[in-house]
Amino acid sequence: MGDQMQFIVEKLNQEPFRKNYNLISFDSLESLQLLQLLSDVLGEIDPKHAVDIREELPEQTAKRMLNLLGILKYKPPGTVSDLSAFRQGLVTGSKSVIHPVLHWLLQRTNELKKRAYLARFLVKLEVPAEFLQDDTVAEFNKQYEELMEAFKNLHKEHEHLKISGLSTAEIRRDISAMEEEKDQLAKRVERLKKRVETVQNHQRMLEIARQLRLEKEREESLAQQKQEQKSQLFHAEQRLQRAQVQLKEMQHVVADSKPESLMKKLEEEINFNSYLVTEKIPREVESKKTSVYFLQKVATEPAMTQADVTALESEINEINAQMNQLIEKRMMKYEPTDSKFSMYRQQASIISRKKEAKAEELQAAKEEMSSLERQMEQKSSQAHELQGSEVLTEEEFKQYVSKLRSKNTFYKKKRLEIAEMTAEYGILQRTEELLRQRHEAIQQQLQAIEEKKGISGYSYTQEELERVSAVKSEMDEVKGQTLDNMSEMVKKLNAMVAEKKASLAPVIKELRQLRQNCQELTQECDEKKIQYDSCAAGLETNRSALEQEVKGLLEECAQEESNYHYINCMKRTLEIQLQRAKEEMKAYVSPDPQERRKAVREQYTRIILEQENLGKKLREKQKVVRESHGPNMKQMKMWQDFEQLMECKRECFLKQQNQAAIGQVIQEGGKDRLVL
Known about the structure:
The protein is built from 17 helices and no strands. It is mainly alpha-helical. Among the domains are: about 120 residues, Orthogonal Bundle (Actin-binding Protein, T-fimbrin, domain 1); about 110 residues. The longest helix is centred in the last third of the chain and has 131 residues. It is extended, with a radius of gyration of 56 Å.
């Protein structure tokens, strides 16, 4: 603690703090002063935290400091309970909490300044997933991430440039070279302009070339927009498919859901999961741990031969036999045959095995069902892509059948109504025919009466006059109404035209001014674009030349570095060989016989003598084996013959014994018959 406080006081007395503390004055600071001091140090690292803590609440101060310490990756010592104590000590200004924080901050101030600066741009703003479903929010979030990546790359390039340390003289030389190239390009452009001026219609050709370039740029931008819209459409279709699948699943669940069935399903699932958690999975974990333990034990042991394996197998068989004997003794001793516990144990073991088997079958069925559901989703998506009809579920098929039934009943009802209407239509048609016949008879009688009276055709002429007068009155009314409508429409149109002219007059004036400005700006933009293209072409050529030069220099540097490492390795190898040769020469010329024996020459000489002696012994042994090979083979043949002879004698002896036993049995049977 004394060294820590001494370091803190020394750093605080230096720039930029200049506090003029000593150990006594620093140790006598109150909690509020310590918090202000910590806030000043944090403000030096991040200027946003240079505030007066008297102007904010203690909770805000603690939250602000904890947030910055978290960004700076400060790890307080201790466990979770110690972390809560650390937060409490930071709020109250405890010395045991603030002194280590100050020591840690003052040790690495420059590094923490850089980290705080980067945190302003690289601490990602977390957006909830439900908000990302909106296309606008998702697009802004994507732009935000792209800008963050661009900032990372720019910062890396900046640091690389700072480390590389380009001198101002080199930059000035580059600028002068670029200016010379710019002058050359300007002269070349002037020569090209003079050459082009002699061509007929050069202004029109330049204008056409400019329009072609603009159209190509527009075509590229439109192609890019088309690609983006295609990707957006594809993503939207995917989201729509997922939403439709979720909606169907939810509808299916809601259609079949009742409180009792849901509770029953939940109870079954809870029972199955509790069985897996409490019984099956712990047992499997324990067996896996045991097998891993034995495998690790086997892996740590040395390699075993076939003899060791055979010995272990025999030992395992013996132990298994002993275990079976002990189990039988225990059953005979503690479990009589009339006891029912054995039966209950057997039943319990059978039930537990059945339970495990059913649990495994259920788990396999669930996995198979999930795989089938995934396959069904894939097939439905493929069918949707092929613009096919979707497969109906059971509930949807039931609804479809019920709709068909209701439509069938509605169809039958309408069919009956049509039959009734047809019958009524036949009756009315017959009535009309009768009335027409009666009308014709009355007309004939009327004509006969008119002929008798001498006024033939009077009724027909009167009907025609009435009909014509009625039609004329209707036409007059329609003409009058049409003329009134036309006059009103003309008045409205004249009023609307006057209003539009009055409202469009200032807009037309403003549009003329804007068109003139647009032409001027377009002309200026074209001139700037030409200047930019020429400058960009020059800079691009210069950049490509510099890139080629840098690439060649890097390759040359890599080759030289490889040569350096190769020469260094060869040098080290030669030094080691030279050192070994010196040691060998020193040991060889040494008068001490012990040192001389350590020489490689002496060791190889001694090994050669040993191998020669061994070869001599092996040759003598080979000679002895060759000389005794013939007698030994004869002796082995004699022993084999002797073994065959003894085997034959044994078989003869066994046959003789069997024949004697059979004769004895026959004699005993004859005696029994005589007695009877």
